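Let us practice reading a record.
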Amino acid sequence: MKKFAILAVASAMAATAPAQIWDEILDGGGDAGELPGSAQLVMGAGSLTTITGGFFGALDADMYMINIDGPAGFSATTVGGSAADTQMWLFDLAGMGVTFNDDSAATLQSTITDIFVPAPGMYFLAVSQFDMDAYSLAGLELWMDGPFGTERAPDGPGAGSPIDHWFSMGAFGGPDSYSITLTGASYVPEPGTFVAIGIGLAGLALARRRK
């Protein structure tokens, strides 16, 4: 309960601050990592309306930790923000899949919404090019490839496992840029609050190991 109270207060404070933009290179300092342990923490204050970045090649996936305020009203889309054939992914703090989309709005770009987001809080938002997909430790896809135009909760053979790595059956695309437009999202709270949240998460992880 304490963890959710902290998240609720942080979300409320962030919602009152002005909208801002996060750039993978300028703000993140370089290429965003592709897994929860190396993801860029989009840290600051205020509403988060845009994430800009780039793919260094077909096998590049970028992951960002964001705060979802609502979750009602949350969305993230690359429609109109990239020429690449993107895929969009959302994972919880344990790396478990939440939602995914390949193609939306009759384009090759991607949109995810609040439809499968269970609660406000911190999540990992990832973007890749087709067909760079999320896999479990056992080498199983967390999502099936299709249907391409539908937003889906995890439905692949690895759906019950967290993301462990990315894999492509065939390399598509190349170096390209992207812009992710967001609604219902904000920056991850500044270090003091984030440390408090981290302590709570560490306690949960320890309790899980003891079981």
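A brief commentary: The helical segments are 2-15, 191-210.
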